[in-house]
Amino acid sequence: MDRNEENYYGKYGEPRKFDPKFRGPIHNRHCTDIICCVIFIVVILGYIALGVVAWVHGDPRKVVYPTDSYGQFCGQRDTLNENKTILFYFNILKCASPVVLINLQCPTTQLCVSKCPDRFATYIDVLASYRYRPDQWNYFRQFCKPGFNNPRKSVAQVLRDEDCPSMIVPSRPFLKRCFPDFSTKNGVLTVANQTTFKDGRGKTRNVTDLREAANGINNVLDARSVGMKIFEDYAISWYWILIGLFIAMLLSLLFLVLLRFTAGVLFWIFIFGVIGIIGYGIWHCYWEYDHLKGIPGSDLTVYDIGFQTDFKVYLQLRQTWLAFMIILCGVEVIIILMLIFLRNRIRIAIALLKEGSRAIGYIMSTLFYPIVTFLLIAICISYWAVTAVFLATSGEPVYKVMANQTLCKYANLTCDPETFNMTNVTKLCPGAQCTFAFYGGESLYHKYIFIFQLANAFVFLWLVNFAIALGQCTLAGAFASYYWAYRKPADIPLWPLFSSFGRAIRYHTGSLAFGALILAIVQLIRVILEYLDHKLKGTQNSFTRFLLCCLKCCFWCLEKFLKFINRNAYIMIAIYGKNFCTSAKDAFFLLMRNVVRVAVLDKVTDFLLFLGKILVAGGVGVLAFFFFTQRIPVFAQEVPVLNYYWVPLLTVIIGSYLVAHGFFSVYAMCVDTLFLCFCEDLERNDGSTAKPYFMSASLHRILGKKKLSPKKA
């Protein structure tokens, strides 16, 4: 097969249409994947409708405000509970954990109060002193059911009907709920400096009995205190954090500019450093092997001593060091052989990295496009979160029978609080009450709320992947405009980034949505598998756990593969304007025809960009550490007084890494686009006057082809 035939058919024999007038991204395009585009638009409209319906039925106050046993919000305006903003539990000992309390599932009466109790008291003691100290009764009565003022009612009936709590303990509000005011005194758990209390039923109990009901509350309260200190640190150091992130941005830009001159130097320094380290390892293994010669027991084999938990035992054997030396020698030989046989491809990869730095230098606006992607994703996340909250709070109050007797057959059955006292439940189950349980409903809408939540999550994933796809296609179109400019930079079109963005939106929304849809389906399956794995974590079925593990691994690999294919498909869409499937197929076969170059370029790029991220984040982190610890004398007086200096320090380090990642993601997209254009250039052209190369002179020299035809100015 001659060169012209290869340009037409390709090396694997698949047909290719050769266009001698091809000059980069095609401008005379047509809309692609129209059906998917229409479906995508319809789904977005449906998503908006879902949000409106959720907004109509939902009520976020159900999340913000606690709800009492009558389904009324604590602290809601224009209600009897307007000044009662805190939820009080009649018998907190019935609550198993804080999670139960927060979810309003504690099997005891819950009442809205204006403040939490500040003293120990029992209903029996208060009733006994009613005639002599009515003030105690008036104080205790505010924690009884509204309207209850009958001290003559028998204690047994009051406690059975839960008209009043049997006891109150000193508490403080947390998450708008009253929790025991725990503290420690000399290592002993106390409540209001007491270690015991009366439970109101004739028993004296230790305050440790409250621990299970309020397990973890102290830790959470301490976390709240730490959170306030962290907030204070952010409030007084935010501008220094912004300065650190600005420095990170400048260092990222500087690193990208210097890659044009230092990409090869950095890579070869790393490679020879690895070779040197492995060489030292070989010498050290030989030295240990020779040093152990003649020492008793060193000539034993690993098989002789069997399995040992102490790894140092194996280091006393010559056979161990001989095995290490052989392994390191093998690795050393493999690396050297790879460098010898892949040296030309490594040079091409480095040249493409330098070319990418040059391309970004001509189209600087691309460095700031990640801000657009970030804003789009932020909008998607916000809409998804708000819709999820409204869907979760779309139900009507559901009341259930709460019985003190464990054998009551009506327990946990739904009930109507208005007619509950007229039923036989109170007679068959003395003390049973109809109390608020949760929000739900029996209507068609309420039955399908779970389906709506799944749809909300799926469309969210689809939109996020579309935003990422739009960014990749836009950047690919801009950098392809640079590569296919015959005279650089004179032939680079005006505003290449904005032109590429317009083409992607106008012609290829359907194709981008198609690729994002495939990825969203796989990601939703992964989310479902993670949910099933979480639910089945306690099961003893080994086969089920193994099957789930295999499925999770397979879909993780599938997602990575699809991201790789989609990324290159978007590049081909940006260049040729074809539909998604055709572009994905063309990109796949083009990469397979250059699979070694792909592997080399991918690893070289990953290494240099990872090195850049570490240098930027590490450099700014070290500078921030010296600044916030007052080790820079010039700025010692400017350092704010902090509770935890690591708060702004970690923020600067993580933020610097993310800033560098944002800039370098543009660079990685640039290199990938230039590589595909480079492969297309090699297959379409031969360097002759009729078919000149569009690659740079440095790439052409590395290929060893005949000289580039002169480019007319």
From TrEMBL:
Q: Mind listing the UniProt keywords for this protein, alphabetically? A: Antiport, Cell membrane, Glycoprotein, Membrane, Transmembrane, Transmembrane helix, Transport
Output the InterPro entries linked to this UniProt entry. Choline_transptr-like
What would be an example GO MF term here? antiporter activity
Q: Which residues form a coiled coil?
A: none
Topology of the protein relative to the lipid bilayer: Multi-pass membrane protein
A Gene Ontology CC term for this entry? plasma membrane
Compartment annotation: Cell membrane
Give the main location: membrane
A Pfam short name: Choline_transpo
Reactions it catalyzes: choline(out) + n H(+)(in) = choline(in) + n H(+)(out)
Transmembrane stretches in the record are 31-56, 238-258, 265-283, 321-342, 362-386, 459-486, 507-529, 607-629, 641-669
Family designation = Belongs to the CTL (choline transporter-like) family.
What's this chain's function? Choline transporter.
Q: What is this protein called?
A: Choline transporter-like protein
Q: Which organism is it from?
A: Bombycilla garrulus (Bohemian waxwing)
